[in-house]
């Protein structure tokens, strides 16, 4: 069946599994899930040609709610698993879903090298500046003076992680930011990210009403990037990032660099490989 034919038949609900999300009421991740299914429907991707990989955290439940291949991995290792899958199955559209703790703390090293490696993946990070699943501890993107956690009663005291800056410095070829209050805007960014031939990083400001109720105010302060068009100049992108308040949304940076795909042509039969493990 052609993509044109699929486009007339598939709706976002075709990419929703039968499992009901268990996020807290008001969680921004509901909108992200909706945006993912809208983007997949727009692209008319067959369900069996999509894989969603995640680590640990509230946002990492995403694979269970999408009707596609999925893998719920261990903490911080979603990108490692996703890159292994893409290396073995370059024909699949691979999405990686996670949160700021999973992606930038225990998974920070994998994030840096995934950007550098530039495999054809789309990494969606739902950033709420807190560890929601483990009851509200400060995360790498938490402001240094946020003092609501029992573990950091005076605030983390260290500068927060700047995901866009790290992605740019590490070699990501597509960097964008969305807001969960605008699911259609996220869906549009996702379509462009999936179609981009390389590592696409999409940071989504996704409020946690349970442990960060003040984030309900984000809808009043988010705004588009001052520049309408993304830049392909990393120096200009760095200047935009450093001048930004972290609440800008839209596409920031996109450049065309050949995606890396390892030569995975088999050189040995399975029987021969199994023989090497015999004792």
Supply the helix-strand structural class: alpha/beta
How would you describe the oligomerization state of the chains in this entry?
Answer: single chain
Count of individual domains: 1
CATH class: Alpha Beta
Question: Unreliable runs, pLDDT <50, ≥5 residues?
Answer: 1-8
- The portion of residues forming beta strands comes to 15-25%
Count all strands and give the number: 8
Q: Please compute the radius of gyration using only Cα atoms.
A: 19 Å
Tell me, briefly, the overall form.
globular
Instruction: Tally the helices.
Output: 11
Mean pLDDT: 92
**Helix percentage:** 25-40%
The CATH topology annotation reads as: Rossmann fold
The spatial strand order of the largest sheet comes to 2-1-3-4-6-5-8-7
Distance between the amino and carboxyl termini: 49 Å
Order of helices and strands: HHEHEHEHHEHEHEHEHEH
CATH homologous superfamily label: Thiamin diphosphate (ThDP)-binding fold, Pyr/PP domains
Describe the biggest sheet?
8 strands, mixed
Quickly give the CATH architecture.
3-Layer(aba) Sandwich
Describe this structure in words.
The chain is 34% helix and 15% strand. With 279 residues, it is an alpha/beta fold. The chain has one domain (23-275): Rossmann fold, CATH 3.40.50. The chain has an 8-stranded mixed sheet with strand order 2-1-3-4-6-5-8-7, sandwiched between helices. The longest helix has 15 residues, at 29-43. It is globular and about 60 Å long.
């Amino acid at each position: 069946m052609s993509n044109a034919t699929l486009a007339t038949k598939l709706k976002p609900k075709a990419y929703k599994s039968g499992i009901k999300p268990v996020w807290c009421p008001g969680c921004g991740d509901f909108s992200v899930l909706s945006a993912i299914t809208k983007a997949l429907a727009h692209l008319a991707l067959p369900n069996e040609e999509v894989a969603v990989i995640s680590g640990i955290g509230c946002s990492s439940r995403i694979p269970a709610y999408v009707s596609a291949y999925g893998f719920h991995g261990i903490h911080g290792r979603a990108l490692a698993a996703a890159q292994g899958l893409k290396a073995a199955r370059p024909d699949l559209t691979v999405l990686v879903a996670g949160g700021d703790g999973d992606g930038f703390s225990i998974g920070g090293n994998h994030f840096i090298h995934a950007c550098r490696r530039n495999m054809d993946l789309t990494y969606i990070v739902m950033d709420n500046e807190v560890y929601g699943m483990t009851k509200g501890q400060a995360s790498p993107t938490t402001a240094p003076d946020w003092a609501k956690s029992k573990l950091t009663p005076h605030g983390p005291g260290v500068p927060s992680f700047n995901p866009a800056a790290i992605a740019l410095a590490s070699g990501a070829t597509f960097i964008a930011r969305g807001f969960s209050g605008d699911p259609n805007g996220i869906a549009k960014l996702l379509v462009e990210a999936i179609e981009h031939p390389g590592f696409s990083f999409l940071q989504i400001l996704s409020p946690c009403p349970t442990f960060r109720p003040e984030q309900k105010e984000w809808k009043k302060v988010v705004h588009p990037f001052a520049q309408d068009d993304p830049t392909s100049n990393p120096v200009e992108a760095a200047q935009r990032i450093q001048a930004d308040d972290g609440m800008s949304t839209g596409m920031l940076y996109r450049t065309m660099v050949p995606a890396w795909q390892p030569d995975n042509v088999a050189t040995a039969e399975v029987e021969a490989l199994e023989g090497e493990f015999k004792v």
